[in-house]
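Please fill in the sequence for the structure shown.

STRUCTURE ENCODING:
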């Protein structure tokens, strides 16, 4: 019996545990689901729920003021966010994958899945991110049961044939450019060394960012990025709320 239960755990045959939550880390029914959503007590993957906020989140291709946004600017906004987040998360351990959902359904929109090489690194990230803020919004962070993103990803979306659109229940993962992926993860997808020398593009130092945004001071309690290059406002992780300042390169994050 125990072997049978183990073999069907998290599958459609499991009448107790939700297969979608087990596979995707999210379920459209939420607390109303008739099956259990059992959060793991430890996992190499953490979920930052609804963290990424698209600039055209209300109407696709249009900003909050009703102005048309060029797709290139939307992609740049996303890549700025991805790069900033990667640099912050990289403080806690080796990142195996950083995936961000492009879905529109409430339970998946803007979800960020971070898979570390070790469970202890994910635990360290969860501990340090709990109670912090991003862009004035609290970070909702939990361990996620997702460890195989091939099973969680919509294959039809990757082939540009998904007819469910943004409300598909499988992950529609937003892609970054190959150049940025190489710069963050290392050439050919190999994990980069912490002691690597950064490329000219990657070395958009905090000093340079400070020059672009004029005067910004570091505050250990409350800090965020006031602005990024190309006019994109990308705010960084804060420990107690939104304040003024920018973290110094190499600064260790404070524990909550």
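FILLED IN BY: designer on duty
SEQUENCE:
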């Amino acid at each position: 019996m125990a072997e049978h239960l183990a073999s069907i755990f998290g599958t459609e045959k499991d009448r107790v545990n939700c297969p979608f939550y087990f596979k995707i880390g999210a379920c459209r029914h939420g607390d109303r689901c008739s099956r259990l959503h059992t959060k793991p007590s430890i996992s190499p993957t953490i979920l930052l729920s609804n963290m990424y906020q698209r600039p055209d989140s209300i109407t696709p291709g249009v900003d909050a003021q009703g102005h048309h946004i060029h797709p290139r600017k939307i992609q740049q906004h996303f890549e700025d966010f991805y790069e900033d987040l990667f640099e912050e998360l990289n403080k806690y351990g080796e990142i195996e994958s950083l995936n961000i959902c492009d879905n529109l359904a409430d339970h998946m929109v803007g979800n960020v899945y971070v898979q570390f090489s070790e469970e202890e690194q994910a635990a360290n990230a969860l501990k340090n991110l709990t109670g912090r803020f991003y862009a004035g919004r609290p970070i909702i962070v939990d361990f996620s049961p997702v460890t195989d993103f091939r099973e969680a990803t919509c294959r039809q979306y990757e082939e540009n044939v998904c007819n469910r659109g943004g409300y598909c229940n499988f992950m529609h993962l937003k892609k970054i450019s190959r150049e940025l992926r190489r710069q963050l993860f290392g050439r050919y997808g190999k994990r980069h060394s912490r002691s690597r020398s950064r490329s000219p593009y990657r070395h958009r130092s905090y000093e340079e960012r400070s020059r672009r945004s004029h005067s910004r001071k570091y505050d250990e309690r409350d800090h965020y990025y006031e602005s990024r290059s190309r006019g994109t406002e990308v705010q960084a992780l804060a420990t107690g709320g939104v304040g003024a300042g920018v973290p110094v390169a190499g600064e260790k994050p404070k524990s909550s």
